[in-house]
Amino acid sequence: MKKKLIIDLDTGVDDAQAIMVALAAPNVEILGITCCHGNTPLENVLKNTLRVLKVCNRLDIPVYRGCSKPLLAHEQNAGDFHGKDGLGEVPDPDAPGLELLQKKKAVEAMIKIVKENPGEVTLVAMAPLTNLAVAVQLDPSLPKKLKALYIMGGNTESRGNTTACGEFNFVADPEAAYIVLDCYTCPTYIASWEFSCKNSLPWSFCDQWLAQNTEKAAFMKKITCLSMTRARSTDYQKEITTGQGFNSCDTYAMAAAIDDTFITESEEVAVTVELAGTYTRGMMVLDYMELLKKKHKAFIMKKVDLEKLMQMFMNSLN
After folding, report:
1. What is the pTM of this model?
2. How far apart are alpha carbons 263 and 42 in whole angstroms?
3. What's the longest Cα–Cα distance across the chain?
4. For 173-182, what is each residue's pLDDT tens digit?
5. Active-site annotation holds for 8
6. Using CA atoms, how far apart are residues 249 and 227, in angstroms rounded to an integer?
7. What is the C-alpha to C-alpha distance for residues 166 and 158, in angstroms, rounded to an integer?
8. What is the Cβ-side half-sphere exposure of residue 77, based on CA atoms within 13 angstroms?
9. Is 36:106 a contact under the CB 8 Å cutoff?
């Protein structure tokens, strides 16, 4: 039986890579894609998602408009890395129009799809968690109906990529991240910022991956040029925990959702999010001392099978 996924995203370059990895997986059925503010403003996210689906000839997959702003935080994006449009600033004059979007809003769709497939849907969250937070407020029973939740976000060593101690997805909507980690009691797997840095893809592999002679590879090479140039820069390599290669953050959460054997080492610990700190707002907190008295714990990814990830990447551009 195919794995049923809902993908919640803010389509930048790594989201695009994750979508294409999922589309190439024979064991996956994407029931819907819900869009959220994040890497780029929501209108760009919607356009970018449709562009990726078009190049993969999968515009049949329903795409839904989600939250355009965080719950309380000031809106921000990651245009310096992904480009102002979120997809490398290489526009497509023949890009699909927004009339292809579903009429139903993302949060409503998420609740409906999960209700119709109880215990079967895996939610892969690769954006600020605003859509998920609103969904659980509207339907508190939603997490119990999910099979699992995979999140790209947060950090484990207080090392930030947006603030001194904060990872982008959690910093972009700390209140939403707090609500999701508190209310989603389904099996939860988290690919943190530092983890993804330590499991980056070698540059030699990236060159081989993008050299494939396909339309998808040509598209990927175009949209990743800006972010890969940035990622290879000395300044950027100083920011991250390892300088060994390209870090496709969101794809780690997606790969884990697709293949149960992808995660080779994890730790189970209760987590929450700091909301008030001057320097630490948005930082994920790991409760090793169990002072929070939380019954629900998350699986924090530590090590993965990079060979499997590289094969998924190669297959995604075939």
Report:
1. 0.96
2. 31
3. 55
4. 999 999 999 9
5. no
6. 12
7. 7
8. 23
9. yes
Residue pair 265/147 in contact (Cβ under 8 Å)? The answer is no
Active-site residue, from 8, 10, 85, 259: 10
Query: Which tens digit of pLDDT belongs to each residue from 303-313?
Result: 999 999 999 99
Residue 113: C-alpha distances to residues 106, 118, 283 (Å): 10, 9, 31
CA dist 17 and 286 (Å) reads 29
Q: Kindly give the residue spans of alpha helices, DSSP state H, lying in the chain.
A: 13-24, 42-55, 79-82, 106-116, 130-138, 142-145, 168-171, 174-183, 193-198, 203-210, 215-232, 234-239, 249-258, 306-316
Q: Sort 121 into a burial class: Cβ within 10 Å, 0-12 / 13-18 / 19+.
A: buried
Tokens of 251: 């794809």
Q: What percent of the chain has pLDDT over 90?
A: 88
Inform me whether the pLDDT recorded for 60 exceeds 60.
yes
Helix, strand, coil percent values for the chain (each to nearest 5): 40, 20, 40
Helix (H) / strand (E) element for 6: namely strand 3-9
User: Is residue 253 within 8 Å of 150, Cβ to Cβ?
Assistant: yes
CA distance linking residue 220 with residue 209, whole number of Å: 10
- Per-domain residue ranges of the chain: 3-316
Span 137-148, average pLDDT: 98
Q: What is the token pair recorded at 105?
A: 């809003």
Q: Kindly state the DSSP code that residue 98 receives in the 8-state scheme.
A: G
Under a CB-based contact definition with an 8 Å cutoff, are residues 132 and 88 in contact? no
Q: What is the pLDDT of residues 259-268, one digit of tens each?
A: 999 999 999 9
3-316 topology per CATH = Inosine-uridine Nucleoside N-ribohydrolase; Chain A (3.90.245)
Burial 264-277 (b: 16+ CB within 10 A, else e): eebeebbbbbbeee
Using CA atoms of 69, 70, 72, 76 in order, give the dihedral in degrees to the nearest 10. Answer: -80
Q: To which residue do tokens 């988290």 refer?
A: 190
Pull the structure tokens for residue 69: 């702003």
- Separation of alpha carbons 117 and 113, rounded Å: 6
